[in-house]
Amino acid sequence: MNYPHPLLAKEGWPFIAIALVLALAASVFGNVWLATPAWLILVFVVQFFRDPPREVPTQADAVLSPADGRIVKVEKVRDPYAQRDALLISVFMNVFNVHSNRSGVNGLVKSVQYFPGLFVNADLDKASIENERNAVVLDVAGQFVTQVQVAGLIARRILCYTKVGDVLAKGQRYGFIRFGSRVDVYLPLHAVPKVGPGDKVYATSTILATLGEP
To answer: Domain extents for the chain?
Structure first.
């Protein structure tokens, strides 16, 4: 099990604290009409920033999901970050999913590329190329896997904690996106997908694909 962080993501601590103070203030100085929505907001904020531990599958060639959510795309495309044809698997996260991002492979970080952009609905195809995004290209024993954090309609902040030269392990936490987004995973063309559009996936514990041999 790979889990170096508390059960509530550190990125959420300030938001949780503010929501708690407002809920307490509404209860003490307000009335039930103010206190009830304030406590509901606190519950929402806490559930959004939850960051549970996950078991890491032991299958050697497995590519694990980098995020919780729903598969919205599995198709062959051009990977603009590693300049190659690739198999794209996209995971859409709504505001009720865990938003901690974790590495799907054991790999060496070859590049980290940030792009400012728009904030259209992350469920739309054009979000992959128009929205704010951060791409991490990993070398996995000579094969490349690209993980792209994409901001969504509500998200306004992509956090990435890795840099070129770092070595990431499967399930290792490397980033966070606040309030609705997606993660695009570009794999070698010979990778075998294990999920399809509409499937629900969970960061680290769900196998998206197997790499196999080039």
So the answer is: 10-48, 62-210
